[in-house]
Every structure is written in structure tokens, then in C-alpha cells.
Amino acid sequence: MTAIEIPKKRTPEKSRAETVRLRRSSQTRAKLDSKKTKQITRQAYQIGSVLLPVEPHPAARRAPLTSSKSRQAQTSGMRSHSLQVRGSARMGTLKTVKQASRHNGYDLAFSLGRTAVHAPAFSLPKLGPRWISAGLTLLLCLVLYSMWTAKAFIVSAAEVTGNQRLDAAEVSAALGVTGQPIFKAIPSQIESNLRTAFPDLAGVSVQVGFPNHIYVNVVERTPILLWSQGENITWIDSTGVSFMPRGNVQGLIPIASNGNPPQLSGASKQSVYDQPFIDPALVQAIVALYPQVPAGSPMIYDPNYGMGWQDPHGWSVYFGQNTQDIPMKEKVYQAILDTINKQGIQPKLISVEYLDAPFYK
Question: pLDDT class for 86, splitting at 50, 70, 90?
Fold first, then answer.
């Protein structure tokens, strides 16, 4: 028997426009499914209510409207393609929901009505170490300025002790810091100022106390000689330092000088107030020789012949400028005096400065 071949029913071919419409409808469907998945994770709540920690209820959403042509296209030969798209969209939705459930706890919504609440807003400047140090420096400058100009720190006078002939008011005037802040008071500088102003001070000790106290303790020199040269009169102590007379001192040895004594070597290296006017050895020689001077006769000093006195009989006697052999010089002088008296000679000058060469004029 001969098999009869039944021709298969041939499905009509789709036009190109219909294929494009089907493709676009499938893409639109996939986008709608993805949007629906995102809206499920959002959890919509009514404003104005506070929900307890219960399972959130997502708000209902209407299904999107589709045209009759798109429905017919979906029921046609593109069902397999749309099923694959739906499957992938559902898998993405499940993953999104799981992730949201892991990270999100309970959502609480509070209603504040229509009241607008504004919190006070202010910002603090960020201060670095330089700004802090600058602020501290400025504060310190203000404190120093206030202390520098305050009357409580102004020096008015000094408390002087140890003075016998020196007036305390004169010492206060010579401080160099009277009327100035106590911070300018430097003890060493004040001591130097006082000893320069008052050479009759052998020592000065200065102490500074707050707020404006200065304590000065002085040691005055003890004069021995009353040195007169022309119209100038000075006092001289045992160290040979000369200073102006102050007050009244008894028992001074008067010296009438015809000129300045020789300068001492090395005196320039000493302080101004410690430089001696005459050699201290000469002062000791005058003290040793003074008992030999006749009563009422002043001692004299000559730059060429040294120290001596004016004898009441009309002649001058000189013993030189050193203290060596004073007793021997006295014996030589007495021998010369006996000789000229026997011979009836009236001398004008007798010098025994050099024992090996005494002479008279």
C-alpha cells in the first residue's frame, strides 16, 4: 500500500511589526515586575500613627493596565520568553526582600503635625595649638601691662639701715628706680648706683621685696684725714679713698696740701668708688708721724718732699712719702736741729726723707 503523506498545517509567518511589538511588551512587563518588587521592600505606612513592632504591611498597588493587543501578543508564541523573564524577576524580588529583612529592624513613624521645629544651629571654631598659644601670650601681656602700670608696684622710697651720717631720703633719691615699677629694681645695679653717688659708703646690700619694698643696708667709711687743698676739703679713710665731708667727726688729722699726691699704679683697674686718692701706706705714715707734730701746728704735704709740718719757729720739716724708719728719721731731725741751734742758723726747710742724705736750707 502506498502511504499517503498528509501535508502539515503551516502556520502563517508573523510580520516584522508584530515581532517588535511583542518584544517591547515583554520588556515593559519586565520593568513593571521589577518596580513592583522594589515597592514591596519599601513598606508604606500612614502618616500620623505610631506602629508597634509587628510585621509591616505593604500598601496595595493596582495592577498596571495593558492594551488588548499586548495581551494577545503575550498569549501567542512569546509565552516561553515571558516565563523566563518572570522567573528571573521573582528571584530578584526574593533576594531583595531577604536583604531588607536582614538590615531593617522595626520602623517607627512619629507625627509632628504641621509644627516646624528648628534646632539652634551654631558651630565652634576649630582652634589649633598656635591659636591657643597666641591667646595665652595675649593674656600674659595684659597681666604684665596691668602689673607694670599698677600703683601698688611703684617704688616710692627705700628702707635704709646702718646709716649714721647719711640721710635716708638722699639714699632713696639715688636708688635710680624711685617712681618706677618694682620689676625694674635690680639689686646689683642699685648697689652700684648708691656707691657711685656716695663714695663715703664702704659697702651696700640691697634686697627687693614685693609689692614695692626696697631694703638697703649701708656701711659708711670712717674718715681719718681732713685733707684741704686750696678751697677743696675732703675726708680720707684708712684705705686712701677720699669723699665729701658729711656731718661732724671729731679727732681728724688736718693736712694742708700743696699739690696732688702721686697716682698709684693699678688704681684704674678698680671701681670708681674704690679708687684710692692717696697711698694707704702714706695714710699710715701720717698717723704714725702725727704725735711728733707740735701742738697747734698743721701737717703739710708737698709733692716733692712728702709729708711734714710747719714748725712754730718758722721752718718746714719733711719726712718723705713712706713710713720706713720713722723713729730713725726723728733722731736725725733732732740731731740736725741741735746743730743749727748751736750755730745760730735759722733754716727754712729741713728734710730727712733720705737717711743717708739729710739736708736743710
Answer: low
